[in-house]
Design goal:
Blueprint (H helix, E strand, L loop, with lengths): L10 E12 L3 E4 L5 E11 L2 E8 L2 H4 L5 E12 L2 E5 L5 E4 L1
Length: 95
């Protein structure tokens, strides 16, 4: 898949893209009272860019400039814009 093809509610079988930005992690409290770290990265391929939500250990696994392969992720909408997230089934590896 390519970034320009992604729309909210899409499932992403496989996407290869470069991390061009990564924000400082912040802590958020979940509905069940747990505190987790989250950071937003920006992914880029030859067709465009998309925000990518990183949770927990995934934040430290990637750096700006890394090429990543993302599988079984999904696109949701945040503040009116599409945003990619791994969810529970998704995976990400640096390639």
């Amino acid at each position: 898949m390519k970034i320009e093809e992604l729309k909210p509610k899409d499932t992403v079988d496989c996407l290869k893209a470069k991390i061009i930005d990564k924000q400082t992690p912040r802590k958020v409290e979940t509905r069940n009272g747990r505190t987790l770290e989250v950071a937003t990265a920006t992914l880029e391929d030859e067709t465009g860019t998309i925000p990518f939500t990183l949770w927990g250990k995934n934040i430290e696994e990637v750096q700006v400039g890394d090429m990543v392969e993302i599988k079984d992720a999904f696109v949701n909408e945040f503040q009116g814009e599409p945003q990619l997230t791994l969810g529970k089934r998704g995976s990400m590896k640096v390639v």
